[in-house]
Design brief:
heterodimer, A: 97 residues, mainly alpha, elongated, B: 193 residues, Cytochrome Bc1 Complex, Chain D, domain 2, 8 helices, 0% strand, electron transfer activity (chain B), Cytochrome c family protein (chain B), metal ion binding (chain B), Cyt_c-like_dom_sf (chain B)
């Protein structure tokens, strides 16, 4: 009985510690995460941009990631569209037989 | 000998009066405690000196990482700053918030350079280094009775250094640059966490 109580206390306190450790995980902030407005970079004064500046490098990195993600989304959407067309085509040909 | 005895007696009597007077004032409840009434100059100076000396002593042994200028640190620190600090310490294009209006002492506007928000530490490498250590220590340990929490218990040192790296560049950022650097976007996993 005592061992059971002890085990329950240990399980609950471990769970509590684990949950509190995740409280400030960056994933927690992802619910209302804003996307970078990379279009604003086009309006910036390019003559003042220094490619060796860490701020500039960080913005490029952020926008490269964003573009990459957008491209992946587009590719995925295109692939899904092609799959749909293909499957509807197959269904169509099945109906003809 | 009698002069020395008189001097000691006077000293003891003065100390007793000061202690009793201080105690009476303390328990009288006369000191205004509301955040909307500023401290008098003496109290402000005492508290500020106590804070600055304490932080400077405690932060003196901190080792500053050599890669504070890494773009990855700016991205990781920027996102955290926006989520955890911008409400009180503002972002480019904002000059006040409910917190800056209501907190006392008012949180420093970190979008301004050090000399503009009350800490002269720019343009001198040694002072810059001290300012960086000071920022790290304050983020990690917080400041008693000021509204500044200790982020150390929930955040490791690397994550706090990322915020310090971002703070270093924050006064130079435009609102657009700030938005791009602080947006978590879709891949905050790649921001060094």
């Amino acid at each position: 009985m005592n061992m059971k109580t002890l085990a329950t206390v240990i399980v609950f306190s471990t769970l509590g510690i684990a949950l509190s450790a995740q409280a400030h995980d960056p994933k927690e902030h992802m619910k209302d995460a804003e996307k970078p407005d990379c279009a604003a970079m086009k309006n910036m004064d390019h003559s003042k941009m220094d490619m060796n500046d860490p701020v500039m490098q960080a913005m490029m990195k952020q926008c490269m990631n964003d573009t990459h993600n957008n491209d992946s989304e587009k590719d995925q959407a295109q692939a899904d569209h092609q799959d749909n067309e293909k499957s509807s085509g197959e269904q169509h040909s099945e109906h003809q037989h | 000998m009698s002069a020395l005895t008189t001097f000691i007696k006077s000293l003891v009597i003065t100390a007793v009066f000061a202690l009793v007077g201080g105690g009476l004032f303390l328990y009288s409840g006369l000191y205004p405690m509301g955040a909307d009434v500023p401290h008098n100059r003496l109290t402000y100076w005492l508290l500020e000196t106590l804070r600055e000396r304490s932080v400077a002593r405690a932060a003196s042994d901190i080792k500053v990482p050599g890669d504070l200028n890494a773009p990855e640190r700016l991205l990781a620190g920027g996102a955290d700053y926006n989520d955890m600090c911008a409400g009180c310490h503002l972002k480019p294009g904002k000059t006040e918030s409910d917190f800056t209006l209501g907190l006392y002492p008012a949180p420093p506007n970190l979008t301004l350079a050090g000399d503009e928000h009350g800490h002269e530490h720019t343009g001198d490498t040694e002072n810059d280094d001290e300012a960086i250590k000071r920022q790290f220590w304050i983020i990690k340990h917080g400041i008693k009775a000021s509204g500044m929490p200790a982020w150390g218990p929930g955040h490791d040192d690397e994550r706090i250094w990322n915020m310090v790296a971002f703070l270093k560049r924050l006064p130079e950022l435009s609102p657009d640059q700030y938005q791009i650097l602080t947006a978590r976007g879709q891949d905050s996993e790649g921001h060094g966490h």
